[in-house]
Write a structure and sequence with these properties.
Keywords: Electron transport, Heme, Iron, Membrane, Metal-binding, Signal, Transmembrane, Transmembrane helix, Transport
CATH class of one domain: Mainly Alpha
Organism: Flavobacterium glaciei
Strand content: under 5%
Largest sheet: 2 strands, antiparallel
Structural class: mainly alpha
Number of helices: 20
CATH topology of one domain: Cytochrome Bc1 Complex, Chain D, domain 2
Mean pLDDT: 80
Order of helices and strands: HHHHHHHHHHHHHHEEHHHHHH
InterPro entries: Cyt_c-like_dom, Cyt_c-like_dom_sf, Cyt_c_III_dom, Multihaem_cyt_sf
Protein name: Cytochrome c2
Number of strands: 2
Distance between the termini: 80 Å
Strand order of the largest sheet: 1-2
Shape: elongated
Bound molecules: heme C
Radius of gyration: 35 Å
GO molecular function: electron transfer activity; heme binding; metal ion binding
């Protein structure tokens, strides 16, 4: 029995080696992941005086409706305006240009005349420091080429995980090799032990083939037949259940409209465009007038909006499609009267025998759009996130508590029903959310 002890200590050493190599591969993976973060924080370009980053925010909030940096809009282009006028004059002008014009300031009157006597809004709420920040922003040099290298793009994250995947694969392969070597060694040790104990290892003698043995054993045949039937039933069922389920359906739209850029980067509220979702049955697609509230002034995207996949030229062309559809001439800044409808492709579509109401879920139940539609603010291309099957609706009705607080309509029903079920909280299902008639006409 002493020899068995020896064999044990060999495997123990091997296991130790295995554990060490695992720890090593895991730590090297951890180190690989860390440095990717550090170089992402590029320092913002320094400017004299104000803070250009804050200035950009103020500019977008107050001035962008009428001014662009590099092109004339309602007002003149503002890049480098600090070179034209001195700061005290700019403070006065921006806080209240009409007053300045009325006071007879020659410079102010001249600009007013040059711009067809268009009136600029007054901004008494802006402090001198705010205006310094805005002017710092307008004094930044124009970005040259698309700054793809400096901007963290989604693609970069993907290639990072590619590297770590390779490391994990490498580590796994390494572990496999060690296991094989280990088996080989254990086998050798065992046969040595056997030899030492005088056991003769007889080579395998060919017996009746495994298939013949199988065919003779009726019980085995029965068990495997049942197993095969069950397995194929499982797949057939799965196949039939996904018929008519259009999860992840993402058709190509007539205008490449990106929710990522609108609802994500620019944080436009879903309900600004889909205002119907709050008050009616449908979510509703916005009319093109809603788009033009902003796009009268946004004829092109910023250089930084371009991604490796979609160039600035591509995006600008999409906005041009919008202009063609509503008949907007961006050079004269006026409508031509020639319109053509945009035929958006409908993505979500329940069968006609199902009744679904947005306001009931969005306004009454207070459910976020994202619960049912997924992280829309990250979608470059809109798609169907949920399966929209009956099971999906029912499942959520079983799990989701109804919001009772501050809703008088529910106070009385709640008291009665919670007594009936003996619970504090009520799910949508307990309120009647499983009754066929509620969802089916
Ligand atoms: C409602 C539209 C409107 C808004 C909003 C607006 N401006 Fe103006 N701005 C004008 C117009 C129009 C002119 C041209 C002068 C005129 O007709 O009064 C002008 C002129 C100017 C000028 C003089 C430019 C030049 O080259 O002569 C400056 C500077 C200026 N605006 C800064 C700002 C700043 C800063 C903001 C935001 C805080 C702002 N404007 C918001 C319409 C606007
Ligand atoms: C600036 C306007 C705008 C904003 C903001 C907006 N959307 Fe949309 N949405 C659209 C347009 C236009 C379409 C049709 C084109 C498409 O499907 O990409 C659409 C389509 C959709 C669809 C698919 C409709 C179908 O055909 O089934 C869903 C779901 C949706 N939006 C949800 C959201 C959610 C959730 C948000 C907020 C995170 C949001 N939208 C913000 C304009 C907007
Ligand atoms: C609240 C303001 C706002 C509204 C409303 C709005 N947009 Fe935009 N849109 C923007 C901004 C901001 C950008 C990005 C500009 C940039 O990146 O420099 C943009 C970019 C775009 C682009 C180019 C990028 C892309 O998504 O392909 C298209 C096309 C576009 N909008 C179409 C539309 C359509 C169609 C509607 C109406 C359903 C609409 N927009 C409504 C503000 C708006
Ligand atoms: C409880 C789940 C749920 C929530 C929450 C929800 N939706 Fe929907 N949405 C659906 C379903 C289901 C459909 C398909 C409706 C149909 O085909 O009749 C749909 C369809 C849509 C459509 C396509 C047009 C239509 O009405 O058929 C838009 C746009 C939309 N939703 C936007 C929104 C927005 C914006 C929000 C948030 C304010 C929101 N949805 C919240 C489930 C939901
Ligand atoms: C994310 C969870 C969720 C999903 C998914 C969902 N619902 Fe609901 N639903 C609710 C909640 C919560 C209520 C209770 C709202 C209330 O009255 O306060 C409700 C209420 C309802 C009601 C009213 C029930 C009543 O008692 O009056 C109907 C009808 C309904 N849902 C239909 C649907 C249909 C059809 C679908 C699938 C297409 C669906 N719902 C998907 C959460 C959900
Ligand atoms: C919460 C909402 C809801 C309730 C409650 C509900 N259904 Fe449905 N039902 C649906 C939806 C959504 C579909 C469409 C599923 C699809 O298109 O895949 C559906 C589809 C069906 C279908 C068509 C078969 C299929 O899968 O497409 C039948 C039959 C049906 N329901 C019967 C019932 C009966 C019977 C009840 C009552 C016990 C009931 N439903 C209660 C939402 C509901």
């Amino acid at each position: 029995m002493k020899k068995v002890g020896n064999h044990n200590s060999i495997t123990r050493k091997l296991f130790l080696g295995l554990a060490l190599s695992l720890i090593f591969s895991l730590t090297s993976f951890g180190q690989e992941a860390a440095p990717a973060v550090t170089d992402a924080a590029a320092a913002p370009a320094a400017t004299t005086g104000g803070d250009a980053v804050k200035g950009k925010e103020l500019f977008n909030a107050n001035c962008a409706a009428c001014h662009k940096l590099d092109a004339k809009a309602t007002g003149p282009a503002l890049r480098g305006v600090a070179g034209k006028y001195d700061m005290p004059w700019l403070y006065k002008w921006i806080k209240n240009s009409s007053d300045l014009i009325k006071s007879g300031d020659a410079q102010a009157v001249k600009i007013f005349e040059e711009n067809n006597k268009a009136v600029m809004s007054a901004f008494p709420q802006l402090s001198n420091a705010d205006i310094d920040n805005i002017i710092a922003y307008t004094s930044e040099p124009k970005a040259e080429a698309p700054v793809v290298a400096g901007v963290p793009v989604p693609g970069a994250a993907a290639s990072d995980s590619g590297v770590s995947n390779n490391i994990i694969l490498g580590a796994l392969a390494f572990v496999m090799v060690i296991l094989v070597v280990m088996l080989f060694l254990v086998n050798q040790v065992l046969s040595k032990v056997a030899k030492a104990n005088g056991i003769v290892v007889t080579p395998k003698t060919p017996t009746t083939s495994i298939w013949k043995a199988f065919a003779r054993n009726q019980f085995l045949i029965l068990v495997s037949a049942i197993f095969l039937l069950l397995a194929s039933a499982y797949f057939v069922y799965g196949f039939f259940m996904q018929i008519g389920v259009d999860q992840d359906y993402a058709p190509i739209q007539p205008i490449h409209y990106s929710h990522r850029i609108h609802a994500g980067d620019n944080e436009i509220n879903c309900k600004y465009c889909h205002s119907a979702a709050r008050v009616s049955k449908n979510g509703g697609i916005p009319s093109l007038n809603v788009c033009m509230n902003c796009h009268k002034n946004i004829a092109e995207v910023a250089e930084t909006t371009a991604t490796p996949e979609y160039s600035k030229a591509f995006y600008d062309e999409q906005i041009q499609k919008l202009y063609t559809a509503v008949g907007w001439d961006k050079t004269t800044q006026s409508y031509t009267g020639k319109t053509q409808p945009v035929k958006w492709v409908r993505i979500h579509n329940l069968p006609d025998f199902v009744y679904f109401n947005h306001s009931q879920h969005v306004t009454v139940a207070g459910i976020e759009c994202q619960t049912c539609h997924g992280p829309v603010q990250e979608y470059e291309i809109q798609k169907q996130f949920a399966p929209l099957t009956m099971g999906w609706c029912i499942d959520c009705h079983r799990k989701t508590d109804v919001k009772m607080e501050g809703n008088e309509y529910y106070t009385k029903i709640h008291e009665e029903l919670s007594k009936k079920y003996g619970v504090d909280k009520l799910t949508a299902a307990q309120m009647g959310g499983l009754e066929c008639g509620k969802c089916h006409y």
